Protein: Universal stress protein
Organism: Maribellus comscasis
Amino acid sequence: MKNIIVYLSPLEKGFDIVNYSVQVAERLGLNIHYVYNVDPEVVESLREDNNISKEELEQKIIEEKKIEIGKLVESQNWNEKDITAVYSVYSGAFDKMFKTIASRNHCELVLFPVSEAGKQLHIKSIFQILDIMKLPVWCFPVGTEFRQIKTIVYASDYKKQDIDTIKALSAFATHFKAKINILHVFKGEKFKQQLIDSGLKELIGKKIAYQNIEVHSKKKNSITKGITDFSKAAFADLLVLLKRDKNIFRNLFAKGTIVKMLKKNELPILIYKK
């Protein structure tokens, strides 16, 4: 069985993060690997006793965090679950930790909690993960309870290349029996002809077996407002966005949209990478 990688931070919200991650993992049929990193720069800032080396203090903090995380994980009754959980505390910077994790092939998803206080740093960390790994990243507001995924909104640019992401999303949605709304928010009047030219609707009918999919387009001056308004009207439980790497201009545009949605949106957001 493959794993979900769960970034277990901030630890003061650890119980909430563990509870949320268990709900997600059980529905997806995935085991959990909780990870936490001890940043050397933070260790150095805490070193007040000249008689202890940075390495000794770092090891001491790692052991303390392992005990703390162990208690959080053991708060769940794993004997009654069909999934298991392990945890690791890494020494080193955040990106170094995820480079280590990326070398493993048994991971399917990253679950990343976003706190209001640390939102700016967390958004930066999310993009570091997306740069390092090919895995989708599920971001959720810390402190929120897991809500059953019944309706998904995927903000698409209606390109034929989207079909691979829609296939992956369809497999994901199967676990929840969720409805997928594929949405394109546009500003210009020419979009309807572009939609016809793209042939995405027809391609979905041919390539995607999942039946519970609808395609929508909405004209709005603000892309993010269009996505937000539609998601609210559709009673969405999950918003899906795509980060592209190949087209620099499109990637910059997509990154800007993702950042805005992470800052303002209250829904969990699943980010795929193309």
In short: The chain has a mean pLDDT of 87. The CA atoms of residues 47 and 106 lie 37 Å apart. DSSP finds ten helices and ten strands in the chain. The two ends are 24 Å apart (CA to CA).
